[in-house]
Every structure is written in structure tokens, then in C-alpha cells.
# Entry
Amino acid sequence: MIASTVDELSGALDELKRLGKVGAGREAFGWAMSNAETWVSAALTDEDTCLEGFGEGGVAKGDVIRKKVKNVAKATSNALYMINKLDKSRGKVRV
# Structure
């Protein structure tokens, strides 16, 4: 699940990098942001699935891994929030 999460976050990063290269008009920007949101959401799902696989409490190693996955999930959630904010701010008219 972690390898899948890394792949999905890499996909989101690729979409965000594409924005600078394309000079993204509204349509291209919206498409790239939608793709980035999808990649990051999929990564969050994988992280949740990973945590479910460890169950509640138990082996000390499992507790350490659970804590690390929760930290990654928090960072991923923050990334999704920032992507959503960036997506929404793009549509505003600037003076």
C-alpha cells in the first residue's frame, strides 16, 4: 500500500509540474487540478487501507508503523487541502 501511495503522490506531483510547462489556460488548469486531486485522494485511501490492515494496537512494531502512516496521511490530507485551495483560487479575478 505504501508503494502505491508513493506512486499516486508522484502522479499528483507530475500533474502540478505540468501546470508550469503548459502555461495552463483555464481548461488545462482545471484538468490538471482534477487529476492531482484524484491522485492525492487515492493516496489517502491507500493509507487508510494500510492502517486497517494493522488493526487496533498490538505489536510494538505495528504501533510504530501505524504512527508513521498516520503522519503520512496527515501530510497527504494537508496536500489535498492546498491543492483544493489552489484550484479554487485560480477562478478568481485579480486586479
The radius of gyration is 16 Å.
